[in-house]
Every structure is written in structure tokens, then in C-alpha cells.
Design a protein that fits this description.
This protein has helices at 4-38, 95-98, 103-106, 129-145, 160-171, 186-193, 199-202, 209-213, 234-243, 265-275, and strands at 40-41, 56-62, 68-74, 83-88, 92-93, 110-116, 153-158, 176-180, 220-225, 249-253. The radius of gyration is 22 Å and the shape is globular. The protein is an alpha/beta fold. Strand 9 (220-225), helix 9 (234-243) and strand 10 (249-253) form a beta-alpha-beta unit. The chain folds into two domains: 1-38; 43-275, Rossmann fold (3-Layer(aba) Sandwich), CATH 3.40.50.1820. Helix content is 40%, strand content 19%. The longest helix has 35 residues, at 4-38. The strands form two sheets. The protein has an eight-stranded mixed β-sheet, sandwiched between helices.
Length: 277
């Protein structure tokens, strides 16, 4: 006959086994399905025709046998072109979703070169961190070939694209790096939700924005909402405290969330002031 202590021990072992099983299952799901959790692309047919109010042209780069980069070049209405913006968008949909923001720049005489990552829109191939860096570098080369000097190029990143933009600015010269709702690093962001896992071993994407900013020579401007529910404002504060150099600035948007910063006058006015310089 089992004693009370023996029954208690067996019960604890049973619950420990259940906990370990759940821990392993959740960890496996995180490892194998993290791309689906992080990325929400919407693919478009190869013969899809974009329709935008802003004048544009489409550029297609055949990188290899399975990878195609689709890039849209938005142009100012007038012929007075001041520079170019390389726009790295977020983790969802495709260029159709972000095209509305091109007007923020074209009205000031800037072209906007906006790319879809592999598997987004009409871009094809496997999306991963190195490929994202490869594509944005290809876009930078195209912008330079179009006649734009580094001191007329602004690199802009939004959400997921902030780390990609920061990486490009760390290896290529530009006039300014602008980040909208950045993360300190993907690993740091995921640790907030999955602190019980060794995320440094599980994650396919690391994107250490903080490390890239340490190497950026150009001025850096960050916009971040204080009520951001996706990438907490603390990420921007941590970047400010840890890697900002003289001339870098954090523009906090009181009450701003993750996807509505463009609706706030404080962001519009500051962005306008940067683009008229």
C-alpha cells in the first residue's frame, strides 16, 4: 500500500511530466511555425497590375532561378527631384498595403523605392533574414545606379523593416535613417513573450537592430507610439539609451499605437521638417 507521501510524489511527477510535455510541444511549435507567426504576406499573381494614384514604375529583379524581387518606384508629380527614399515595409500583406505612405515623401520631391520581400506580393522565393538584407542592398544599388548620391538617399524602415533598414544603413552611406516603431532586436522582443525558452537557439530571425545602429554614421530618427501594443515603446527607449550618438533623436507619439502613427500631427510635422532639409 502506498503511503500518502508516495502518492503525493507520484502526483508531482505526473504534473511534472505534463508540464515538460507541454513545454516541449510549445517550443517545437515556436521553432517550426515561427515564420507563420512573424510573417503575414499576401501573394499576388505574376500578371497582377498595380494601380496607384501616385506616378510609379515597377522594377523586377531576377535574383536567381527561384527568387524574384518586385520593387515599385514611386515618383514625385513634378520634375524637381530632391532625393530617394528606400522604404522597408512591415511584416504583413504587400506593397498595396503601404503605397499610401509614399505620398509623405513624394510631395517633398523624393522618389520612394518600395520592395516586397520574397513571398510578399509578386516577389518569389524563400524569405529569411539574409535574403532580406540581400534584397535591400540590391535596391540600394539600383537607387545609386539611377543617379542618386548617398547624401540624397533616406533609408526608412517600418516595424519589421526597421531592422532591415538599420542593417543597410550600417553598411552603406545615406543622408538619414528613419525608423518607425523599431524593435531592439527580434530576440529581445520575443524574449518578452517567451522568456522561458532559449530563444537564441530557437529563432530563425535575430535582426539585432541595436548592433546595426552602433555602426550607422548617418543621423537616426525614431518615431514610436507610447501605447504600441505590438512593439512596446520600451524598445525605442532602450535603443536611445544604449546606442544613440550625438544628433540621433527619439520622437515619442503620446497615445500612438503600432499602426496609426501617420494619423498624429506630431509625426507628420516632424517628418515634413526632416524632408524639407
Amino acid at each position: 500500500m502506498k503511503t500518502k507521501s508516495g502518492k503525493k510524489k507520484n502526483k508531482l511527477l505526473k504534473w511534472l511530466k505534463i508540464f515538460i510535455t507541454i513545454y516541449i510541444i510549445v517550443g517545437a511549435l515556436l521553432y517550426f511555425f515561427q515564420d507563420k507567426i512573424l510573417l503575414h504576406p499576401v501573394a499576388l499573381p505574376a500578371d497582377y497590375t498595380f494601380q496607384f494614384k501616385t506616378p510609379f514604375e515597377e522594377r523586377i529583379v531576377h535574383y536567381d532561378s527561384s527568387t524574384l524581387f518586385d520593387i515599385v518606384r514611386f515618383k514625385p508629380v513634378n520634375d524637381s527631384i530632391k532625393g530617394a527614399v528606400i522604404y522597408c515595409h512591415g511584416n504583413m500583406e504587400n506593397i498595396n498595403h503601404y503605397a499610401m505612405f509614399a505620398d509623405n515623401f513624394t510631395k517633398h520631391g523624393y522618389e520612394v523605392w518600395m520592395m516586397d520581400y520574397p513571398s510578399f506580393g509578386k516577389s518569389t522565393g524563400a524569405m529569411d533574414e539574409p535574403m532580406a538584407y540581400t534584397e535591400v542592398l540590391e535596391v540600394y544599388k539600383m537607387v545609386r545606379s539611377a543617379g542618386f548620391s548617398p547624401d540624397s538617399i533616406i533609408i526608412y524602415g517600418r516595424s519589421l523593416g526597421t531592422g532591415i533598414a538599420a542593417e543597410l544603413a550600417s553598411v552603406r552611406s545615406c543622408k538619414r535613417l528613419i525608423l518607425e516603431s523599431p524593435y531592439f532586436s527580434v530576440e529581445n522582443l520575443v524574449d518578452r513573450y517567451c522568456w522561458m525558452y532559449p530563444t537564441q537557439w530557437l529563432l530563425h530571425y535575430k535582426i539585432p537592430t541595436n548592433q546595426y545602429l552602433e555602426k550607422v554614421a548617418a543621423p537616426v530618427t525614431i518615431f514610436h507610439g507610447t501605447d504600441d501594443e505590438t512593439i512596446p515603446f520600451s524598445n525605442a527607449e532602450k535603443l536611445q539609451k544604449g546606442v544613440f550618438k550625438k544628433g540621433d533623436e527619439l520622437i515619442s507619439i503620446p497615445g500612438g499605437h503600432h499602426n496609426d502613427l501617420n494619423d498624429f500631427p506630431v509625426m507628420k510635422n516632424k517628418l515634413d521638417s526632416l524632408l524639407v532639409q
